[in-house]
Specification:
By secondary structure, this protein is α/β, with parallel strands linked by helices. It has eleven helices and twelve strands. The longest helix has 16 residues.
Length: 302
Amino acid sequence: MNQVQLQRPGISSPGQSRPASAPRVRLAQYLLGLEGLALLRGWAIGDPHEADLRIGEIAGICYRISEAPSSGRVEMPELDVRRGYAAWAATYDQPTNPLIHNEEPHVRALLAECPPGRALDAACGTGRHAQYLAQLGHQVIGVDACPEMLAEARRKVPGATFLVGDLNALPAETASMDLAVCTLALTHCRNISPAIAELARVVRPGGRVILSDIHPTLVALGGQAFFQGTDGSFGVVRNYVHPVSTYLRAFAGAGLRVRACQEPPLVEDDLALIGIAAQVPGAASAALVGLPFTLIWDLERS
């Protein structure tokens, strides 16, 4: 759901050539999808005038399908987590990510409630939450699979310890942490249960686990981890749909008690950061605003 522009070459990850046949994503497909979702959300209880506007816009997009901007295509190779985040590392902290814009205030409010102690930031990325934890007085260990992201984190939080590691095998002793944080990462896992079990393992009894992710509703509607590299090219890391019930089963199996669950909706300020949506602002607002955008869990180790 990051900002998307047009007519750029595809991402080349460090040390690797660009895929010879990277998919070329059609702008018109996204615009028509927004129009259709807007129609669907209002089909039974919406304003008929608004429906007429949406249908008219669909007809216009289809009529001009071979003209700019509808004809625009973006080369968008799918990369695995390691290669994708290596290519994304230098631009990840730019203030144009609507998901971070929505998620960060809610997660920080939860972190501010936790007394200082030993904190693990799993899949820490560039260290945005590790930095906040350090400011709150925690002794912070950050773990990520991507050395390029960790290099950014070390520059940002020189007082923390950062380690290369896997969510399914965290480099921390059992019950050694007062707090574990994992944000905007579990959606990249085909199966979230092993990672959640690891997060529970490293936290002491009574300790907290705080998780966030893109909401499964948005993933089901096509929300993927789109990004733009420093050379202006694009890539995508796959998100998987994990219903709320899947999280609850994983928590129960790992001995985690749910203290609270939040589902912050997508708001107009978030929408303003989705650049492609500006092509059809009325449809984008009707389609997306009000849908749950992020999923945030506050958990306690039994």
